[in-house]
Amino acid sequence: MNQTILWGWAVFTMMIGSSVASGQVEDFDSIKLYTLKNASGVTVKATNYGAIITSIVVPDRDGKMADVALGYNRVEDYINAVDKPYFGAVVGRYGNRIANGEFEINGETYSLLKNNGANHLHGGAMGFDKVVWTVENYDESKSLKLSYLAKDLEEGYPGNLKVTVTYTLDDANALTVDYSATTDKATPVNVTQHTYFNFKGEGQGTFLDHELMLNAKQMTPVDEGLIPTGELLDVDGTALSFLTMRPIKNQINDRHEQLKYGGGFDHNWVLDKDGKEGQLTLAAKVHEPESGRMMEVHTTEPGIQFYSGNFLDGRLKGKSGKTYLHRGGFCLETQHFPDSPNQPSFPSTILQPGESYQSQTVFKFSAK
Predict the structure, then answer these.
(1) Could you tell me if 15 and 26 are in contact, meaning their C-beta atoms sit under 8 angstroms apart?
(2) Which family, according to the similarity comment (predicted)?
(3) Sign of CA dihedral 237, 241, 247, 249
(4) Spatial separation of the C-alpha atoms in residues 328 and 201, rounded to whole Å
(5) Is there a binding annotation on residue 116?
(6) Residue 253 is labelled as binding a ligand
(7) Each residue's pLDDT tens digit in the chain (368 positions)?
(8) pTM above 0.70, yes or no
(9) By the number of CB atoms within 10 A of the CB, which of 81, 174, 202, 223 ranks highest?
(10) One-character DSSP codes across 97-137
């Protein structure tokens, strides 16, 4: 079976610390790296630490392969990364921000860690990105199914939440990400994938010449703390519009108030579902002109967060040994809207006992 122990010694020493002196022995063989590979040579690697996608290798128009996902070669680099970039991770229990780190369900207020200024971000100090997931199934070269049990009041969230993530790579160069979850108490759930892309190849400069289309006529504007105001803003005719393919560099330095708040793009777009809410529909397209590499994103989710790597600044060195520059990678995070538990006009993210959370996103790679 094509799996490799992932840098176990560093994890071992961090996990047990001084327990070595007491004679205790603990498993340091639990974190592994799994490889999915299809008939055309596209390769995806993922680890059960944080359900992180560490690598996505795809061809350009001439068949030249390159890794287009930012990340590291060693697990300790994911654990110790400054600025917590969430490279390749599954984030939750609630991806994105919750205002003032609190929400109310059935008259009870729940308090969460404020790890993003006055707000809660991506599940807190020990979100889904920083735990070891259980490998439920590994179908060599095809799919990897991972699960995690987030216990009641873990990071302040109510309910024992059993969540699964399945990565499947097919011969059409599509990577499908399936999420499911159940709970024994009402709880907010908003899980997403936080891979940073650069279709020139990771570490190969910026993505500013990439062309982007977002299938969205509206977005959810934010305040200075990047919390949605509750309104919907029409983007047509503004720097926030990606209704047709256009170079990101043409808009990212616009003086629009929303871009000032985010230091670039860090916003949620409201996807045009055309009456197909909850079904798989087109969310985004990306094209890198030099290599010809392309990606389409389809999702069942109502929104997508375009994040333009605003906090990358050259301090982080990736797999190839090259630093990740400002604008060196971008994210397209399919999701429900930020702060939905506090925004009654937004689609609900509350999962009830007896219900099943289901979400799917497909990343389809090609070149032209």
Answers:
(1) yes
(2) Belongs to the aldose epimerase family.
(3) positive
(4) 10
(5) no
(6) no
(7) 444 444 443 343 333 233 333 345 455 568 999 999 999 999 999 999 999 999 999 999 999 999 999 999 999 999 988 878 999 999 999 999 999 999 999 999 999 999 999 999 999 999 999 999 999 999 988 999 999 999 999 999 999 999 999 999 999 999 999 999 999 999 999 999 999 999 999 999 999 999 999 999 999 999 999 999 999 999 999 999 999 999 999 999 999 999 999 999 999 999 999 999 999 999 999 999 999 999 999 999 999 999 999 999 999 999 999 999 999 999 999 999 999 999 999 999 999 999 999 999 999 999 99
(8) yes
(9) 202
(10) EEGGGEEEETTEEEE----BTTBEETTSTT-GGGSBPEEEE
Is 97 annotated in a binding site? The answer is: yes
Q: Is 96 annotated as a binding residue?
A: yes
Spot the catalytic one: 120, 154, 155, 194. Answer: 194
140 is catalytic: no
Q: Binding site annotation covers 93?
A: no
**What are the CA-CA distances from residue 183 to residues 213, 346, 354 (Å)?**
36, 21, 7
Reduced to 3 states, what is the DSSP secondary structure of residue 258?
helix
User: Is 333 one of the catalytic residues?
Assistant: yes
**Which residue bears the tokens 């982007």?**
212
Q: Which is the catalytic residue, given 211, 288, 301, 333?
A: 333
Q: Is 38 annotated as a binding residue?
A: no
Q: Which domains are seen in the chain, by residue range?
A: 3-367 (2.70.98.10)
